[in-house]
Amino acid sequence: MVCLGNICRSPLAEGVLQEKLNRKGLDIKVDSAGTGGWHVGQRPDLRAIAIANKYGVDISHQKARQFSPTDFQEFDIIYAMDGSNLSDIVALAKSSEDIEKVGLILDELNVENNNYVPDPYYGGDEGFEKVYQLLDAACEIITKKMCNGKR
Ligand code: 4NP
For residue 48, which of 116, 136, 142, 121 has the smallest C-alpha distance? Predict the structure, then answer.
């Protein structure tokens, strides 16, 4: 799960998907990173921690890190939160296999438009609620696919 700062969107995506997979008893490792390095080592934004808590997901232990080209070897699927994250990740790819691993998380919702998770950093709490609902819906679909061996 990759966003810009790894303190708002991708920590939520990591926490929500990991929680859903754990509940299904699936032993799959979920991680997150930011394309930028400004927040490396920091805990998620307090507003992200709070919205996750509201829905029973604890993301307070997470620490931000920067996306690394070695992540292409480490992970099978790389979900970007928006188009800018996607192009920044693809720019670090070394092969077509690397590029094939990368996609937009909201493409899982099969919507024509609005397939970017909006950056809630400079907005209010309602932005975090919206981000949570989008990620919850996408992660529900991803979990179902993983249960069926289709992801
Ligand atoms: P995120 O949100 O990419 O969802 O973690 C942001 C966090 C920090 C900044 C931008 C977006 N920033 O500019 O510091």
Answer: 121
Averaged pLDDT for residues 49-76: 98
Atom number in ligand 1 closest to CA 38: 14
Rounded mean pLDDT of the chain? Answer: 97
Domains in the chain, number: 1
Prediction pTM value: 0.97
CATH number where 93 lies: 3.40.50.2300
Please tell me the predicted confidence (pLDDT) of residue 85: 98
Ligand 1 neighbours (beta carbon < 6 A): 3-9, 34, 38, 119, 121
pLDDT for residue 149 is more than 90: no
Would you give the distance in Å from CA 27 to the centre of its chain? 18
Query: What phi and psi, each to the nearest 5 degrees, are found at residue 43?
Result: -70, 160
Span from the CA of 37 to the centroid of ligand 1 (angstroms) = 10
| Domain that residue 103 falls in | 2-147
